[in-house]
Amino acid sequence: MSKTSASDHAAIHENPKSNNTDSTHRVWLFQGLFWGVMMFVFMGILHPLSEGTVLTTKRLVFSFIFWMVGGLAFGFLLKAIQVKWGKK
To answer: If pLDDT is split at 50, 70 and 90, which confidence band does 3 have?
Structure first.
């Protein structure tokens, strides 16, 4: 772990185009995709298997696309709420 000084923290907050800030703007994307993948695994694969439903390629592709779009929407919604409430 590297230690950062108070001047380093000030420089990060003064320069909105720094790498640290850019990565925090993309956090919603990764959160949304992670949520979408988890929902796809549980709701698109494990749940149908537990019910004895046959998994077809068409069903899996549709489910994957559905949950990825849903995950991105979820991540963007989380970002919008954080910005609205001032937690950037």
So the answer is: low
Query: DSSP readout, 5-48?
Result: -HHHHHHHHH-TTSHHHHHHHTHHHHHHHHHHHHHIIIIIIIHH
Q: Which amino acid is at 16?
A: P
Chain centroid to CA 28: how far? Answer: 5
* Collapsed DSSP state (helix, strand, coil) of residue 71: helix
Question: Phi, psi (5° rounding) for residue 41?
Answer: -65, -50
Under DSSP, the state recorded for 87 is: -
User: Which pTM value belongs to this model?
Assistant: 0.68
